[in-house]
Design brief:
Elements lengths: L6 H9 L4 H24 L4 H8 L3 H8 L7 H10 L16
Helix pairs in contact: 3-4
Keywords: DNA-binding
Pfam family, one: HTH_3
GO cellular component, one term: cytosol
Length: about 100
């Protein structure tokens, strides 16, 4: 039987594989965008169906987005921002400052 390793060691090994970092970063972005939309929707007291109606989407599409299942386009983010009574702000950050 092999030696037991910590999750941090396993994660480091996995993240060092070619292409994994980019995939992880894309998943992180999708998750954070979805979470932000869900939190704002809940603040406004909207259901997924109500947000879908405001954006011209179907409720399952909103659910997928909130779960981090889709990478949105800028126009989609603009529609969501408007429906959530917010202003979309896209910015670049140096890698050493990005979380």
């Amino acid at each position: 039987m092999g030696e037991r390793r910590t999750w941090a060691d396993k994660k480091t090994e996995i993240m060092s594989r070619p292409g994994v970092g980019a995939g992880y970063e894309a998943a992180r972005i999708r998750f954070e965008l979805g979470e932000a939309v869900r939190l704002r929707r809940e603040q406004l007291g909207l259901t997924q169906a109500e947000l879908a109606e405001r954006t011209g989407l179907k409720q399952p599409a909103v659910a997928r987005f909130e779960a981090g299942g889709t990478m949105p386009t800028i126009p989609m983010l603009e529609r969501l921002a408007e429906a959530l009574e917010m202003r979309l702000s896209v910015q670049f950050q140096p890698l050493r400052e990005a979380s």
